[in-house]
């Protein structure tokens, strides 16, 4: 079990192109934990998408 800070660091490093082994060595966690974090991603709920309305220009 890793903290949310470690999870964020793993996802950020993965997004920047670091390999799983590099991330695991850098943070001191196992390769399996690193892979699991990357596979499951960020579990925080995404904000709801709302339609974007563009006001027409008034002449």
UniProtKB/TrEMBL annotation:
It comes from the Bacteria. This is TPR repeat-containing protein. It comes from Bifidobacterium callitrichos DSM 23973. The lineage of its organism: Bacteria, Bacillati, Actinomycetota, Actinomycetes, Bifidobacteriales.
């Amino acid at each position: 079990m890793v903290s949310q800070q470690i999870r964020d660091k793993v996802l950020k490093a993965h997004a920047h192109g670091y390999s799983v082994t590099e991330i695991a060595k850098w943070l001191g966690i196992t390769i399996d934990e690193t892979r699991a974090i990357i596979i499951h991603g960020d579990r925080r709920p995404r904000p709801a998408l709302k339609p974007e309305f563009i006001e027409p220009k008034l002449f």
